[in-house]
Write a structure and sequence with these properties.
The complex is a heterotrimer of chains A (about 200), B (about 425) and C (about 375).
Chain A: H1 3-17, H2 29-36, E1 56-61, E2 64-69, H3 88-93, H4 116-119, E3 128-129, E4 135-136, H5 142-146, H6 150-158, H7 177-180, H8 198-203
Antiparallel strand pairs in A: 1-2, 3-4
Chain B: H1 2-18, H2 23-49, H3 64-78, H4 80-88, H5 95-119, H6 142-169, H7 176-202, H8 215-241, H9 248-278, H10 285-292, H11 301-319, H12 321-325, H13 327-345, H14 347-353, H15 369-397, H16 405-413
Chain C: H1 2-8, H2 47-59, H3 62-70, H4 73-76, H5 82-91, H6 95-104, H7 110-123, H8 133-151, E1 156-158, E2 168-173, H9 182-190, E3 203-208, E4 231-236, H10 245-249, E5 255-257, E6 263-265, H11 275-279, E7 285-287, E8 302-304, E9 316-318, H12 323-326, H13 333-337, E10 343-347, H14 354-361, E11 377-380
Parallel strand pairs in C: 1-8, 2-11
Antiparallel strand pairs in C: 2-10, 3-4, 5-6, 7-9
Helix pairs in contact in C: 3-6, 3-7, 6-7, 7-8
Classes of the chains: A alpha+beta (about 200), B mainly alpha (about 425), C alpha/beta (about 375).
Chain lengths: ~200, ~425, ~375
Amino acid sequence: MKIKPKLFILVIICLLSSCKHKESGYHNLKEKIEEESKHYQDPGISSEVYIGDIETIEITEGEHTFLIPERKSQLKSYACTECHSKPLSELQQARDQQQAHWEIKIKHANSQTMNCATCHNPGDMNHLNSLAGIEIDFNQSYRLCAQCHSSQFEDWKGGAHGKNIGGWANPRAAMSCVNCHNPHEPQIASKWPVRFNTQKEMERK
Amino acid sequence: METIKAFMSMVKDSLGYITHGSRTYHIWMIFLTVIMLIGMYCYSIQLDEGLSVTGMTDRVSWGLYISNFTFLVGVAAAAVMLVMPTYVLHDIDFKQAVLIGEGLAVAALIMCLAFVVADMGGPSVLWHMIPGIGVFNFPNSMLAWDVIVLNGYLFINISIPLYILFRHYQGKEAKASVYIPGSILSVLWAVGIHLVTAFLYEGLQARPFWNNALLGPRFLASAFAAGPALIILVLAAIRKFSEFRIEDKTIKKIAMIVTVAAQINLIMLISELFKEFYAPTHHSESAYYLFFGLEGKTALLPWIWTAIPLNILATVLLTFHKLRNNLNVLYFCCFILFVAIWIEKGFGLIVPGFIPGPYGKIAEYTPTWIEIWVTLGIWALGAFIFTMLAKTSIGIELGKLRYRKKEVLDSESV
Amino acid sequence: MAEKKKWFQLDLGLSKAQGSGSCGCGKDSGDCGSHSDHPDKEYRLTAEEFDAAVEKELMGETAVSQTQKDGFQQVFDVKMDRRTAFRKLTASLLVGAGAVHTSCSLTAGNETKEKAQIDWEEQFKGNYKLMTKEEKQATVDRLVRSYQLRKKKNIKMSSADASKDVLFGYAFNISKCQGYMNCVSACVEENNQDRNSQMQYIRIHEMKDGEGFKFNEADDNYYHEVPAEGHFYMGTQCFHCDNPPCVNVCPVEATWREEDGLVVIDYDWCIGCRYCMAACPYDGRRFNWSKPEVPEDEVNKNQHYLGNRMRKKGVMEKCTFCVQRSRAGKDPACVEACPTGARIFGNLLDPDSTIRWVLENKQVFRLKEDLGTEPKFWYFMD
């Protein structure tokens, strides 16, 4: 019976030494992130190569500076004035010329709010214009969108909206509005899922 | 030198003794061997194909093997219920039963280890677990604890009876000062193996069905019911098939242990059921699945509704002295209690822990024949080992196996 | 499938289908001649031939085929049959002897020797977590070389460690996800997941609007045009908890949290006990129930030791935030593939990163926060 106290102590020691070791003294993850990022130094990882062939331009909006794809070179028949040399009414009259933009249907808000001239300037086809009539470059078309979609614009600048290009590290590059949304028909179409797991279906039977 | 010679002689004698026996004995051993061979063949298929030949999936990732493992840890732990009164409290009644009990513990532990190995995805890299050569995640992982306590318990349970039998083989009395500390250690250890095994499940916040403070105590209660119940059945068989005399008094005393443990187990079951069904939360889904089925998935209903009535019936019958003292009723009760607890602690505990899954998905589990045969093979292995151990120890205890110094010397000189 | 047949035939007395109509080649349809190159043809060997074959194997090639069992099944692609399965039971003890024999033998070819040498070293290497830089490089070199020897193709495998001042985090925009599952598909292709069992790290749950997160009523295996009316979509995968329960329970430390917050697995050290799977509250872990297979031309050859290298059967695997990409500064495959921009990945320690902006400016939450696992995977809405 004398052995029992000794064993008891042994068990206690075992139990104490088996407490989970926490390497850091932080109470939670948020504290830890805040604490550790105080002395943050750039780890020297670059995502630049992953941007690939996409030609980008740097923009600065508020406190955010990042890259977005260059747009004008991607437009099929830029500059627009190559065709739009005459006023629109004259072009529409000319029956002998080829029809253009016939496939564009505006499905963006409703006809009370939006028509072609809400964004395009009939007087200067090479540029877009804001609601107040200020000229906007095609490369900065996001400014046009931001007029109404202000919350999305905020999210986009911060990185909560829109798709990142390449990698998580610097330099930051993000898709611009028109890279994902067709400005004339911004709703993304529904489609079928890419995959269906037949095995999972069987397991659940 | 003399000791080694005596030991060699004991090994030789017992080898001779276990290979000879009555016709029934041989048939029994051949039967077990056949089952083991089938089990081995099935295991070879499992090794070859991977665990996909079992019914386990990503949803229910532990099945029949781990269920049996959990149950058998309890059986192994129960041997202590005989050790304690005999060696520690000097209650002479149990002395014949205790060797049998410890033999049973050894067999159960070997089965436990076999079930764990059978459940491993990579049995060939199990050496990663050996401290020193591999990396042992101690004390963080409860499985690491379990490996230590199971192997330690196996060691204790082999060495104590071996010492006693060896002394008896030489015709000497076993020294109390040697085996009593070991016995006390094994008493503590037995509680340890079962608690640690319960903690294995209890410590998982991901599985609310297991993450339950009552799990450990319930493991102990059910183990101390099922284990001695099995011992009673085994003693009954030994009484019938060998000359080893076991008194009714011994069996009745063990029956008392079974009864008390079964009663406590039942109380805990009621407490658990009350908590799950009186104030059901999201965490009671598993219990609902187990007892009533969820979304039309009812695979466990026949099992659990067999187990619960059997459990209650056995406990009630055992509670009445008159019924319990009737040996035939007692054997019947022990049998149904054993079956009931096997279901409850095995299937009824492990499988519903995984159902519904972390995201509420239900995929049911049905063991395949491969799994069932491997399981049967391991049970046959356990029975095989136990039979050999019991036969040897009975032989020594009855004095049929004795060290004969003279003869050995004679045979050496020839 | 002939392979499936194998274990159902085992019912022996219990099923009478066996041996009645099918030919001895193990297939129940077609004629035997149509697949003469099938490994099952060995079934028809006579006893002497079998013994001779065993003898030969034990003398020569067994070392290779046997250690493969334990080594990386996927890479070595050995064809197995029932006989080898049987033999394995007894011959596994001869593995070591066989390997030594082969590597010392004068008759064996240089490549065979080299293979045996690699297998031997791979079988008895240590835990990756505890390796020195040189040891890590050595095992990576061995794996690359053995792939070259076996498949005659080159792979690129990295052993890049975590960078200082990096802690990876992930945010998921519930209002943006449309349930297209491009992420699931990209993940499978990037990470060389088993095609047979259709293993997927990512699950997309389709939930009803206005009912909150009812995961049990959500459908994570839908197949209809998406987004479905009145539903929203939510993706789950490994959340790379900062206090991961799976790491605590692993008995051999085969899984651990790296310095940059990734929870990774050493596939060669894992013993396959699946305790981590039971411990994960997020269904983030997957097990290789059988030998994983990827068609050779679909194998992603840009690999990382802790990431998408070939797995073997009987080990755990899981999302690693595409460690082979993320440590090189690239976005994980799911982020890159998502057409909606619902997935945001970045460095939590960089105060100017987009992930930090999301955490500080959006209403974020995590799943099962009450468990104290501290996932590094946040959800938010517009």
